[in-house]
Every structure is written in structure tokens, then in C-alpha cells.
Amino acid sequence: MLLLFELLRGFRLQYKACQLFFPHSQTIVGAFRCITKMSYQQHSSTGSGSRTARRTFEFGRTYVVRPKGKHQATVVWLHGLGDNGSSWSQLLENLPLPNIKWICPTAPTRSVSLLGGFSCTAWFDVGEISENSPDDLEGLDASAAHIANLLSTEPTDVKVGIGGFSMGAATALYSATCAATGRYSNGNLYPIKLRAVVGLSGWLPGSRGLRNKIEGSHEAARRAASLPILVCHGTNDDVVSYNYGEQSANLLHSAGFQLITFKKYDGLGHYTVPTEMNEVHSWLKAKLNVE
Fold first, then answer.
1. What is the DSSP letter of 107?
2. Are 72 and 288 in contact (CB under 8 A)?
3. Is residue 105 a contact partner of residue 62, using CB atoms and an 8 Å limit?
4. d(Cα 234, Cα 200) in Å, to the nearest integer?
């Protein structure tokens, strides 16, 4: 357990450097893979809790990057497993999008099956990343509701979106499906009209029956068809396989999300690079119609 803690602590510290484009990404991936193998062998405001029927999730600190210009849009950006909102807020602050407000929350600290039950920040529980693995719908709903709550107080004339990396991307894409169907998986109403969703190096959880839910409702089909989604994935990602990113984009499209943009990055591992962030910048600027 001590070794697991040291590996995860090293992963979290080096992960921040990865997001700032320093060349430590392969070391980070190696640490993550080591943890995964071991598991199978045996500034701004404070976050709030989200209560479900069985569990209470206490979210960590939320970091806010205020717009430098006119406030035209707000995007909630979600970090990956074991990280927090601080590192992404530092990166996003430097994107040339002065009229976007960024909200970077921190996930709850919880037991993660992928890490043999070890606790770290995670938007939901995950045992393995595959189309056959069970979904932690309770955890997904709690995180999606927390994100929606963060967006619910934004001015009505401000366009809102969600983005994320890795597990954060998975949560963002799940939120997109909730926005389309109009409900969380537990049946509660989803209250936010999303205008853009971005997922980097992630996957789509909670996809079972998605197509039937959307095709069975005219309103759901209309919302899905009008929601722009950007999915980006590197071909050398050995944490979340490239195939899962591509399959997620295809599944969303087949379910009725017509405005899907999928970007493939040859040679990119489980990290982000300036070329990819430039794509995010251009895409958000166009889809949110910000200056």
C-alpha cells in the first residue's frame, strides 16, 4: 500500500508538468500502468457535496479563471484521475480566449477499483476501461449534477460548455448524453442547455441503451443533433486506448449526435500538446461564437 501511495503521489505531481507540456509524459504513463497492473494482480471557492440515495460525495476545491474581456461563455473543465482543478486552471488561463470564464472543479476523493481500492480524486469509480465494464452510474450522476450546479448560476446570456481530459473527458461526454436525453440515469431532470462539449483522451461511459433513449424522444433527438462535440485522441495512448476514443465518437454519432468532430493525433500518448490545445481553442471559439 505504501508503494501504491508513492507511485500515485509521483503520478499526481508529474501530471501537472505534463499538462504544461513538459517532457515527463511517458514517466507518468509508466507510473499509471504500474499501478494498474498491481491492482489487477491481487484559489476560488470550496466545493460542495452532492448526495445520492446511497453515497455522499464531497467535492474538492473549485478553481475559477475569470474572463479578461467580456464574459461571453463559461466552460467547466474536468481533470483526470488523481489530479485536481489547479493544474488545468493554470493551463487554461494561458489560452487566448479572453472572453471565456473557466471553472475547474476538483473531483471527490474516493476508492477506485482500477487502483485496487486505493483512494484518490476521481469523478466516478472505474474497474477497467472497456465497453463491457460496468458503469458507476451513481458516481457519474453525482459528478454530472455537481457540474450542472456550477453552471446553473451563470448569467442567462452566457453560453455554457463542458470539457475534460481522460476521466474528466469521460464525465464531460456523459454529461452530453444527459443534456440530450434531458435526464440523468437516475431519472432526475438535467437542467442545463449545453452549447459545446470537449473530450481529450477519454471515453464514453453509460452508453448502453443510449441510441434507443435518443431515438425514442423527438426532443432528445433534436438536442443531440444540435450539440457540438469535439473528441481528440492520440494513437499512442496506452492508458486509454485510441480505439476507445474513436469508438466513443462513432457511438455518439450513431446515437444521433450529428455535430461530432473527431481529431486523431498520430504518435500522441496520454497527455496533451500545444497542437491539440490550439485545436480546442479554435473549435471553442467557433462553436461558442466568442471573440
1. P
2. yes
3. yes
4. 9
Active site residue 141: no
**Residue the block writes with cell 461558442:** 288
Q: Which helix (H) or strand (E) holds 63?
A: strand 63-65
Residue 160 grid coordinates: 455554457
Detail the DSSP E strand segments found in 135-184.
Answer: 159-165
Spatial separation of the C-alpha atoms in residues 52 and 132, rounded to whole Å: 25
Give the strand pairing for 119-121 and 109-111: antiparallel
**pLDDT tens track for 111-147:** 999 999 999 999 999 998 776 778 999 999 999 999 9
Smallest CA-to-CA distance from 70 within 91, 45, 94, 98 is with: 98
Distance CA 19, CA 200 (A): 12
pTM for the whole thing? 0.83
Question: What distances in angstroms separate CA 221 from CA 48, 145, 216, 246, one per listed residue?
Answer: 32, 21, 8, 22
Tell me, yes or no, if 146 is annotated catalytic: no
The residue among 21, 26, 20, 2 whose CA lies nearest residue 11 is: 26
Tell me how far apart the alpha carbons of residues 83 and 155 are, in angstroms, rounded to a whole number: 29
Asked if 166 is an active-site residue, the reply is yes
Contacts of 189 (CB under 8 A, 6+ apart): 182, 183
Catalytic position from the list 87, 143, 237, 248: 237
Looking at 25, 166, 175, 201, which residue is catalytic?
166
